[in-house]
Design goal:
heterodimer, A: about 475 residues, 14 helices, B: about 250 residues, 2 domains, seven-stranded mixed sheet, 11 strands, about 35% helix, disordered N terminus, disordered C terminus, binds protoporphyrin IX containing FE
Chain lengths: ~475, ~250
């Protein structure tokens, strides 16, 4: 089998696995929301086990969705390794199975952030804590090796300054770095940094676990490390999605490719630095953290999101405004995804402003903004890639019929679902409550409405996925 | 040695300021000096409650404990003083209300609406629900116990426990927390916790960057090192040629 066919088959397998997990994880989310609405009755342990599974699974699948999409598109520029791709897939499958065992069999339920010292307060099977931590280790190793592999291939072709597009800072350069290469490089460096953080975090957890009380971790350090890893990885997943947008949107719209400009280069180089320090905004309530870090957190939150988002939005507007665009499901998903990213980004910046955080901290505003830029942002970038790739596998375009209707219902469901979170946040309803006390008068109603909107979103997703899934399944019967 | 000794003490007497915090207190029946028989919930539903555990035969900590408590409450900030009651409760079931009345008189608290002196026959149930473990010493005819204050909020939850004779600041924080004011608290680094981000010198108030902070920067530095090493290796192969914008794969 030739390399390209192999790559297509592996990518199909990724897409199928991701979509299966996605539909299951959405169902867990809907179940949680119905429980919060008091429409169904789950035990608190079941609720928090579902919440943990939902959180880690969602974060995990959209990280790998971004990585495998970038890996597929990288093959246009450099040689990519199918071996590493398979290795990452094998470790991802093992990691996910271990993770689901801990939550569904071991009833592990710390939430996806597994904040120290919660994993040691075992309100679940004793084995679940080490197995949960190990499952993160297995996932992390697979993705780390894969990221390093991809970066290795990029640096084989582009020098370091070229990969970071530094030549675009001044006039008269002869070498052009494609925006896709720049964003992928910047993002992979970030992914490597946060996976190394995860390794460190796991080492510290296991050191305490095996020390039998002779070594305890510093809570502040552990919280910093946890959010360095958690906040950064989910942001980098989004940027992997943005990289696919830069590569595919002009192409599927029948427009010339995005050109690298000095401002795109500056914006994405800034993003590398700022995204790695923005996580400090998770520690505003930790008074033991020095004030200077809190200020860095606020400034970095602005600079991590604003340059990249505004440059991308500007580029997309220039691409489609008053221009003849060939509309398809792929570019519709990309454009709506950019809107979702921007809306979620504004919600995030509002929350990352220290004075607002005093009011919004740990309210439903938090899931509101991150669900907006994930469920209505990054997920749509990846679905756009899946749709494009499924077509690319077999060279058959899907008819545009009903595509706008599908997108319409996806938007009604998705934005309706997150709106209920935003309203809840504005009413100071806390996040991560399995049941809302009666004092939060609107909470149950909002939860119920949120769940119904999410059902519309799920339905639209299933309709959109149908074609993609069929094409991916067919891919396995294709031979040379 | 001192650490081990204090660890052993804690084990033997099983006292901890963390145990039973945020748990519901048992709603026992008490006999008060002022209002006769009451349920504990009658008191805490009116206002937040501080329970001070004593007994009248006590020749040890109980009296200094009460003296210190009354003084510290009067020294604590005025805003915090508004809303609270102190229940001085005997955990010795042989104490009678009259004994507690005498104790109240000794501290001039007979007519103070903030202070209630009471006995109970359900001391064991209450002790268990708040994590208080007095041990009867038959040879001395005394209880071996710590001086314990337990703060109960208006919903009957243990909000804070203070062990030992405490300063006015601690009492003020307890009163504030009981009244729903946010009181910051943080795990203190113990002897066995290495790698803290900062070290703090309580004498000078100086805060210094410590080893833990280096660990926070390490992953980023390390990933840059990985990238630079790869770039250096690859640089030998690259002759700064123009990169064609072409498709190598699909
Ligand atoms: C329509 C689809 C979805 C539904 C119905 C849903 C539902 C929920 C609910 C009800 C919660 C708990 C909220 C709370 O704190 O009270 C939650 C948390 C979360 N969701 Fe979603 N979600 C969806 C999509 C996504 C997507 C696409 C992601 C992608 C990253 C995601 C990631 C998370 C994470 C990370 C948490 C936090 C878990 C934790 O606190 O440990 N969700 N979701």
């Amino acid at each position: 089998m030739n390399n390209i066919l192999k790559l297509k088959k592996i990518t199909s397998a990724w897409i199928l696995a991701i979509l299966l997990l996605f539909v299951l994880a959405i169902s867990f989310g809907i179940t949680m929301r119905f429980n919060q609405a008091n429409d169904i009755k789950l035990s608190p342990v079941t609720f928090y086990s579902l919440m943990t599974t939902h959180g880690v699974t969602m974060v995990g699948i959209w990280v790998v969705a971004g990585m495998m999409a970038v890996n597929y598109l990288l093959s246009r520029y450099v040689k990519v390794s199918n071996g590493l791709n398979l290795f990452a897939m094998a470790l991802t499958v093992i990691g996910v199975v271990m993770l689901w065992l801990t939550t569904f069999v071991g009833h592990y339920h710390t939430g996806w952030t597994f904040l120290y010292p919660l994993p040691f307060y075992t309100a679940w099977e004793k084995w679940a804590t080490p197995v949960f931590l190990l499952s993160l280790g297995v996932l992390g190793i697979g993705w780390f090796v894969w990221s390093v592999g991809m970066l290795w291939q990029i640096l084989k072709r582009y020098s370091l300054p070229q990969a970071f597009a530094w030549q675009h800072f001044k006039k008269g350069h002869t070498v052009e770095t494609p925006p896709f290469i720049l964003i992928t490089t910047v993002t992979l460096v970030g992914v490597i940094a946060c996976l190394l953080t995860a390794v460190l975090l796991l080492i510290l957890y296991f050191a305490e676990y095996f020390s039998k009380g002779t070594f305890t971790n510093d809570a502040l350090l552990m919280k910093n490390l946890t959010y360095f890893f958690g906040h950064t990885i989910i942001n980098e997943a989004l940027y992997l999605g943005v990289a696919t947008l830069y590569e595919l949107l002009p192409e599927v719209s029948g427009r010339p490719k995005f050109k690298m400009t000095w401002y795109v280069a500056v914006a994405w180089n800034c993003t590398l630095l700022f995204v790695l320090t923005a996580f400090f905004h998770h520690l505003y309530m930790d008074f033991a953290q020095p004030q200077s870090f809190q200020i860095i957190g606020q400034v970095a939150s602005y600079f991590a999101s604003l340059p990249s988002a505004s440059v991308t939005a500007f580029s997309v507007i220039v691409l489609i405004y008053k221009n003849p665009v060939k509309w398809s499901l792929t570019n519709l998903l990309f454009v709506v995804g950019v809107a979702g990213w921007l809306i979620g980004g504004i919600g995030a910046v509002i929350d990352a402003t220290i004075s607002n955080n005093f009011v919004l901290h740990n309210t439903l505003w938090v899931p509101a903004h991150f669900h907006t830029y994930n469920a209505m942002g990054n997920v749509l970038f990846s679905l756009a890639f899946f749709n494009w790739a499924a077509k690319d596998f077999q060279g058959i375009a899907s008819p545009l019929r009903y595509d706008k209707t599908k997108i319409f219902w996806l938007m009604v469901g998705g934005f309706g679902f997150v709106l209920m979170f935003y309203i809840g946040g504005a009413y100071s309803i806390p996040r991560r409550y399995a049941e809302y006390p009666n004092e939060f008068t609107n909470a149950k109603l909002l939860a119920s409405a949120g769940a119904w909107f999410a059902i519309i979103y799920l339905w639209a997703i299933i309709v959109i996925l149908f074609n993609i899934v069929m094409k991916c399944i067919k891919m396995f019967s294709v031979s040379e | 040695m001192i650490c081990l000794f204090s660890k052993a003490q804690v084990k033997k007497y099983n006292y901890s300021e963390e145990s039973r915090v945020y748990q519901q207190v048992a709603d026992i029946t008490i006999s008060t000096n002022s209002d006769g028989i009451k349920k504990l919930s009658d008191l805490y539903s009116e206002s937040p409650l501080i329970i001070a555990f004593v007994y009248t035969r006590c020749i040890g900590i109980c009296n200094p404990f009460l003296a210190e408590l009354s003084q510290n409450i009067s020294l604590s900030g005025t805003d915090a003083k508004q809303h609270y009651k102190v229940l001085v409760l005997s955990f010795d079931t042989s104490d009678r209300v009259e004994d507690m009345n005498k104790l109240a008189a000794r501290f001039n608290f007979e007519n103070n609406k903030h202070w209630i002196f009471a006995t109970t026959q359900q001391a064991d149930i209450l002790n268990k629900s708040v994590g208080f473990n007095p041990i009867w010493d038959g040879s001395r005819m005394q209880f071996d116990h710590e001086a314990l204050l337990v703060g109960i909020n208006q919903y009957g939850y243990v909000v804070k426990k203070l062990t030992g004779l405490r300063n006015p600041d601690d009492i003020s924080l307890l009163l504030r927390e009981l009244n729903g004011v946010f009181v910051a608290s943080y795990q203190l680094p113990g002897n066995n916790s290495l790698l803290s981000c900062f070290t703090y010198n309580p004498a000078t108030g100086e805060r210094k960057i410590s080893l833990g902070l280096l660990l926070l920067i390490a992953p980023f530095v390390f990933s840059l090192v990985i990238v630079f090493i790869m770039a250096i290796i690859m640089n030998r192969r690259l002759k700064n040629t123009a990169v064609p914008h072409h498709y190598a794969g699909t």
